[in-house]
User: Fold SET domain-containing protein from Friedmanniomyces endolithicus.
Amino acid sequence: MSSKTPAPETEQDAERRKVAFHLSGYMHKGLGRRGSEVEVYAERIRSGDHDDFMAEISTALEEQSRLIAADLSGESTDAQSLDIPAILFMHDLNLRASSILARQGQQRAATVPKDVLARLDREAADVHRYPFVAISELYPPCVAPLDSLEVIRLSELTAETHHYGKALLVARIGTVVQNGIETLVAVQDVNGDAEAVELYHGDVNLTKNLPLETFFFIKEPYFTLGASGLPIIRIDHLTDLVHADSRPEALSVSASKQEVGRTASEWKEVGNDFFTKQEYFRAGQAYQSALDAGGEGKLRQDISRNLAQVDLILERHEQARLNAINALSNDSHSAPVALDVKAYFRAASASYQLRDFRQCQEYLTKLLSLSDKDEDGSRLLEKLRARLKEGEDANYNLNQLVKRVSRLQPLVDIANFTKRTIARTSKHRGRGLFAAEHIRLGELILCEKAFSATFGWKSDSNSTKTYDVRRKTFHGLPAALWMSTVQKLQQSSPQRIAEVTSLSGRYPGLGSKLVTADGVHVLDAFQIHDIIAANAFAIPTPAKKQKTEAFGLIETVVPLGTKASTTPDNCALFTHASLINHSCLPNASRVFIGDAILLRATIDIPKGDEILQAYVSPTLDVKARQDRMNLIWNFTCSCALCKAETREPEDLRQRRAAVVEEADRLAHDINTHLVDASQRDGIIRRAERLHARLKATFASEIWDGLPRAGMSRVQTALAGVYSFRKEYTRCRGMIVEAFDCLGWVLKLDKAGTTARELMVPKVGCATCLVEEMVWMLATAYRMLSESKKDRVLAEQVRELARTVYIALNGVEMGIDKIDVEFGDSAKSGGIPIR
Assistant:
């Protein structure tokens, strides 16, 4: 019998085999993956069924090789290789998503506990696990009360199914595995059947401190494939997990293994013992059990007061406030008074951390009426008065705040100042913020502490990134911000929950409506994710050494991207500042101090005008701006600048960008070689030619009334050159022209009544504020100072420069560097701090 001759290998087959071979080597050596796992990906590529995946991997491997070669040869490059682990992760998820329908409804296979525990042991040992978490199918949290659900067992689960109207009763077994924002735990039901649970956003203490064989309910369980590709019960919404202590009487027989029999006094002693050992989570559980056991009168007050202290330590501030109030005796005898002082202090401390300063003031007033010399209360009152003053009239010591912020302490303790703005519907933009009063250039519009913030260096979970299967993209926010926001909302007041859930996101979830089930406010984790994706800010990392350079605080939002590598290290969610809408022609600029955002006016803003900021840099090409805004915020900017640039031919925009880049390099060369007589004249002539070429690219009438920020760098350099050569007429003309290009009329002929009169917006023209304006005003100051008759004008120019500086930089920090340019090392003056 003759054997079949194998088909000859095609060129495509050879390419697949080559890519599979190189990927296998990379996964073994670069990622430390196991042989069987590596072979899965290699076989997919060799099969020819996944050529798109192969092409991505091939490109990523080639780019990585190129960067390694460049590094070895000493070449500098700003490029980044494509994230190969992210490509593998996306490929796996997209494959699973495409097979959901085929798996849906398949009966779950029974699993013995030892097999599930072995799986978790392998997960725990996997030190090379990818730092990603997936958002696949969105599903709502269960809003039904537990006693309305039918209790089922693991054997009744079917694949890719949300078991609506059901509740699963299981007990924890084995150890807990924490991977970023995901907690893995093994459970079994009363029949001994076992399964793995993947819990997201949960406090790991909650799972670790559930005693073995403690029962809990999973409301409307979702049985699917987990991150490892194996079956799991996935819990995305924390409120879908209910401790069996909350069970209705009708189900109590099913939870017969719960520990019972201790009295409230005995539970209190258990809690005290855990508290002494600094096992605060377990202490809180014991105190709660004491309350559930029916303690009454003074005993109940003592337990509530102790539980309030535990809640404060664990940052469960809303619970701390409620438990502290429940601890009050309102008895006039001396012993109860001392205990009430403690309770009021704990309630006040919780309210302070909740940023409810008026409530904090009320509790402290009652505390001090009972004990006017209480030291703890008096110290807290002193801090509170500072916060109240900040919230009322923006009485911040901003320079001191900047000095205090560090990597060890990136969070600031301030009150929000938002009274100059009001939220209302914006035409074509949804909700927005509007000026509640006239706000002048450089003045503070608002200052707000973040509702939640995460910093890349603080924990491993901050490096975990979220991948959205819906849009096949990584969201540019650390998954840790998602987890911390969900956890904080669990401990927040209804008012704070409403502030966050009223923010817009692609997925509406439960909206801003407060839903309560089984005694807690129900939260939709996917809604919170999309709110963060649409509203979070990237924030800078505090410097290890104090920043003192001019414009040291200027930061912009780091755009979110499609690659995992684009995720910023630090992110924050602000509930008020997030309402500010975008424009490429903004009237406000933002800076960050730790987890606080400051917005200042970059032009006079009349009462009733909308506050606008730039989500992405207006200096980016219009196509890049529009692509980012569509990807992240799902809108297309239709401002006058975008309309104008869109009307231009793309080749003209590209030519302009090339000239701007060349002009920027030359501006640097001018500053470097200005004192070198042999090169000076040639460089200046080149700069003047570039200036003329750049100016010509803006000659079209579509630029009428629009700022041309690309001109500023070369104009600043030329103004400095002319001043250096004492060609003051040309210097003055270049500075005035530069301001004109940015939409401003600058008057350098005579002093005004005030410094502000020197710079006014051009009629019918949009304006732009850039840092080069400060340096040009410094040049103008030096030029004017040489003439005795222009001394008053020179001082007004200096004051104007400082106003522009504070509008852009947010605080005075670094102003001394500007003063050096003015030939004045004295402290700054005339800067509008408010």
